[in-house]
Specification:
Elements: E1 8-17, E2 20-21, E3 27-36, E4 41-46, H1 55-65, E5 69-79, E6 87-88, H2 90-107, H3 114-118, E7 124-125, H4 133-185, H5 191-208, H6 214-227, H7 231-250, H8 255-275, H9 279-299
Parallel strand pairs: 4-5
Antiparallel strand pairs: 1-2, 1-3, 3-5, 6-7
Domain Endoribonuclease YicC-like C-terminal: 188-303
Pfam family, one: YicC-like_C
InterPro entries: YicC-like_C (IPR013551), YicC-like_N (IPR013527), YicC/YloC-like (IPR005229)
């Protein structure tokens, strides 16, 4: 499976005529769908008046294509051969005028202007052809079909960005593996280097006071050296690197799993820094933390 970003935009338009989608039809259908990153699947619609009934089916369609993301889907339906005459909602207008007269008489308000009255929602009605159930069902089907076209285009856009993110993530995982190997091969971890540091520390303490038991000091130093060993952290980093590579190679909605791995990477980097008793190992640990932060930032947009 291919990786998908959660960020994308698609616009899909078709022209519907009678019972099919064609270039010479009567109704223009346009879907604009955009998505950004989100913890789950959240969809918000902006639908023209009278088309609210398609929302449940449209929501199901989006859930078939995507697992995560915050979506905004906007529908435009335009009658290409619509009548251009003005239609007044006479009954509604009468009620508005009566209410206006009452308010004017009660509060002494100025009379309403014609343009103000016409601007009220519901006074002017868009002319629509009368549709029977079969015609409306065909239009709804065309709208949902157009949505599928928009979702296919959006998925392609998200896959294209997901591919780019996957390449970046793979490079960062490789860098984490390189840093772990550098720490493993660092001369400061050699037996000779550890022995020299311990000997120098013990000698310094003995020079400061003759009250220390030299044998006991050597035992304590050896114990502290064992606690400071970072082999476990390096082994776990190798395991996490292998898991991350497998997930990226497998693809699909792996964002949450990679986020968990990024936390594990960060934990090992912190422990490596806290255990370090050599400047070179500390420098590697700090660089490792920086790469892990970049890794986690990139995957936030991954489905």
């Amino acid at each position: 499976m291919i990786l998908q970003s959660m960020t994308g935009f698609a616009r899909h338009a078709v022209t519907y005529g009678d019972d099919k989608v064609s270039t010479g039809g009567e109704t223009r259908i346009v879907w604009e769908v955009r998505s950004v990153n989100g913890k789950g699947l959240d969809v918000r619609f902006r639908l023209p008046q009278g088309f609210e009934g398609i929302e449940p089916q449209a929501r199901v369609a989006i859930s078939r294509h995507f697992a995560r993301g915050n979506f905004q889907a906007a529908l435009t339906v335009e009658q290409l051969d619509a009548r251009t005459d003005i239609v007044l909602n006479e009954a509604y207008l009468a009620g508005v005028m009566a209410a206006g007269e009452r308010l004017r008489a009660q509060y002494g308000l100025a009379p309403a202007s014609v343009d103000g009255i016409l601007a009220l929602r519901g006074v002017l009605v868009e002319p629509q052809e009368t549709q029977d159930e079969g015609t409306r069902a065909g239009l709804d089907a065309a709208i949902l079909s157009a949505l599928d076209g928009a979702l296919v285009a959006l998925a392609e856009a998200r896959r294209a960005e997901g591919s780019s993110i996957g390449a970046i993530l793979s490079g960062q995982v490789d860098r984490i593996a390189e840093l772990a190997q550098r720490a493993r091969n660092d001369p400061a971890r050699s037996v000779e280097a550890v022995r020299e540091r311990l000997a120098a520390q013990v000698a310094l303490l003995l020079d400061e006071s003759n009250e220390f038991d030299e044998r006991r000091l050597h035992m304590e130093a050896a114990f502290l050296a064992t606690k400071a060993d970072i082999q476990e952290e390096l082994d776990r980093l190798d395991t996490h690197v292998a898991s991350a590579r497998l997930l990226i190679g497998t693809g699909g909605p792996i964002g949450r799993k990679l986020d968990f791995l990024s936390q594990e990477f960060n934990r090992e980097a912190n422990t490596l820094c806290s255990k370090s008793n050599a400047a070179s190992i500390t420098a590697i640990g700090l660089e490792l933390k920086a790469v892990v932060d970049q890794f986690r930032e990139q995957l936030q947009n991954l489905e």
